[in-house]
Input
Amino acid sequence: MSSLVTPRQAGSPSVSFEFFPPKSEAMADRLWETVERLEPMTPNFVSVTYGAGGSTRERTHDTVRRIAQQTHLRPAGHLTCVSATKDEVLSVAEDYWDAGVRHIVALRGDPPSGMGEKFEQHPGGFRDSIDLIEGIRAHRPDLGRCFEISVSCYPELHPESQGWDAEIAFLKAKQDAGADRAITQFFFEPDIYVNFLEKARAGGVTMPIVPGIMLQPNFKGLKRISNLCGASLPAWLHELYDGLEEDQETRELVTANVAADLCRKLSDEGVSDFHFYTLNRAGLALSTCRLLGLKPKPVEAA
Ligand code: FAD
Output
């Protein structure tokens, strides 16, 4: 296994955190508190999602810009191809650049009606994530070539997948188009990641493939999203949450321990980078990091 892990992935553990843009003042306060509490964990980067159909365009941009300007964190802005022309999407990339953001998570995205619905290319828009990566790289060569670009990947296949050969070839094509890193859909069994990594490496994918670790203590919500995105929930996970519907405190403890246990098993396989889907909850991400032995470092004023 260790030979499958690239040199950039070897070494001391490093983490990154995903946030979503807030919908209200109260949610903005919670997000900002989360950012402040997680900054001392010195993440490799933090990323901010982009809503279906560009529905969060302004909020995503404001959040990413604020992180870039008011913290020492390195933010990545998610960008999708949905419901926008190429020019509109590339102008968001330019805005990111002007705000000091140097990292984009380039995605095709889902239709505004939601995950599971058929994606339709916007007339004048990007066809898919590969087209988007190529568009960013070709746009204003002074900017496009300098962005770090991360992409998605699917260790249990994307619901629209045409099978493993096509899936790996598609990921390799993202790399060839200029992607620097892939972040996985969430999963709960280490073998799912290990087997996927083997397939990807055999298919010529050499970029780091960072496991995406879900920190969702609401098991009902987790089941709903898993059904839509094709990530499996093992029987032992159902068992762990069984009967905890009214007990959020215990669910959170279970969630942090399940995530830390998965990371430890992946560490045993040589993995050292972990991307946490934080759902803007500082406590869960912090306790998972602590369980992995990560300690906060003092943060100087930005
Ligand atoms: P792509 O990787 O471009 O394609 C998805 C799948 O379709 C491929 O894996 C493959 O199975 C199939 N496919 C498509 N074209 C081809 C082809 N030519 N040949 C073979 N197979 C093909 N959604 C949001 O709306 N906002 C976000 O901020 C966001 N962030 C995400 C972050 C991560 C790390 C991940 C894993 C997902 C994220 N998503 C987000 C969800 C994502 O938008 C959906 O999964 C969407 O359905 C696919 O977008 P994609 O960029 O992964 O698509």
In short: The longest helix spans residues 248-268.
